[in-house]
Specification:
The chain has about 325 residues and is an alpha/beta fold. It is about 30% helix and about 25% strand. It folds into two domains: about 1-135 and about 290-320, Quinone Oxidoreductase, Chain A, domain 1 (Alpha-Beta Complex), CATH 3.90.180; about 140-265, Rossmann fold (3-Layer(aba) Sandwich). InterPro entries: ADH-like_N, GroES-like_sf, NAD(P)-bd_dom_sf, Zn_alcohol_dh.
């Protein structure tokens, strides 16, 4: 099968590989679409904590089982079902976690093998290129589940790249009011129609105490300080994007959390239930979601797509296989 393999950082090879042999609990799946994630681009340029090389990347996939009909998106985790985290419903934090496209071969290939119980059905009316946005959308739902986003609450999102925009869609679908902070004019222009369609407003200047929730969908440290300042007392901040290494957190920021009883949570990955909810949201907001797709490409163009993604100016590339 045609496969795109990351051999070492920066070295991607389009090659022929053996079709995977599924284990008894797995299914052999033909990939129809795989969206390209910023994390894929980062793994290509600098590696990742959870990446094992060589690897076929790609964890945002839409598939058809090779032996039957129907279409599915794939929850990229594997969970033991018995550890403390699994029993608490935090299957994305399972101590035996192995992630598709990180520890196991992913979707930049014609076929992949994944556990049968990781498949989430896709209704016939939802195109595969849109369906594969279910995974990143589910990750934003996980963030909202950590910090809450009740109907009518004001949610401030730092970054209007694809993930920030999906976060706004997730918030809107739950009845919260999303506001996007973005300083890049090009990104604002590209997201204009999507923002209009889902009713996400722009946050143009600091409004201390004005928001119930803030989330960073951009790695800059400034998003933490500004986000905390803009929260009302008792407000909640979600660390969705990791921060760059090296910068110490000033005591003043921590004291802000202390004096105003702010709540700070992390979020990483998603659960199967969140993926089911994400598929439903994509069906309900199909036209808006279509606007998040920058281009549909083939495997040979993925390296170029990585460069464009790292430039930060583009929406979602989807590989069609
Ligand atoms: Zn992703
Ligand atoms: Zn577990």
């Amino acid at each position: 099968m045609k496969s795109l393999v990351l051999e070492s950082p920066g070295v991607l090879k389009l090659t022929d590989m053996q079709v995977p042999e599924p284990e008894p609990h797995e299914r052999l799946l033909r990939v129809t679409h795989c969206a390209v994630c910023r994390t894929d681009a980062k793994m290509w340029s600098q590696g990742h904590r959870d990446l094992r090389l060589p690897r076929i990347l790609g964890h945002e996939v839409c598939v058809v089982p090779s032996d039957s009909s129907g279409r599915f998106v794939v929850w990229p985790g594997t969970a033991c079902g018995t550890c403390e985290y699994c029993r608490k419903g935090f299957e994305n934090l399972c101590s035996a976690m192995e992630i598709l496209g990180f520890h196991r071969h992913g979707g930049f290939a014609e076929y992949l093998a994944a556990p049968a119980d990781s498949l989430v059905p896709v209704p016939p009316e939802l195109p595969g290129a849109i369906a594969c946005l279910a995974e990143p959308l589910a990750c934003t739902l996980n963030a909202l589940d950590r910090v809450g986003a009740a109907p009518g609450e004001r949610l401030l999102i730092y970054g209007a790249g694809p993930v920030g925009l999906l976060m706004a869609l997730a918030a809107r679908s739950r009845g919260a009011l999303p506001f996007l902070h973005e300083i890049n004019a090009e990104k604002l222009a590209r997201s204009h129609d999507f923002r209009g369609q889902i009713g996400a407003e722009l946050h143009r200047e600091d409004r201390p105490g004005d928001y119930d929730v803030a989330v960073n969908a951009a790695p800059a440290w400034e998003t933490l300080g500004a986000g905390l300042r803009n929260l009302a007392a008792g407000g909640r901040f979600c660390v969705f994007s990791g921060f760059p290494a090296g910068d110490p957190v000033p005591a003043g920021l921590i004291n802000e959390i202390h004096y105003r009883q702010l709540v700070v949570s992390g979020a990483y990955g998603c659960t199967r239930d969140q993926m089911r909810e994400a598929v439903g949201i994509l069906c309900a907001f199909r036209e808006a979601a279509q606007r998040l797709i920058e281009d549909t490409i083939g495997l040979p163009r993925v390296a170029d797509a990585f460069s464009s993604i790292l430039s930060g100016m583009v929406l979602k590339f989807v590989v069609a296989l």
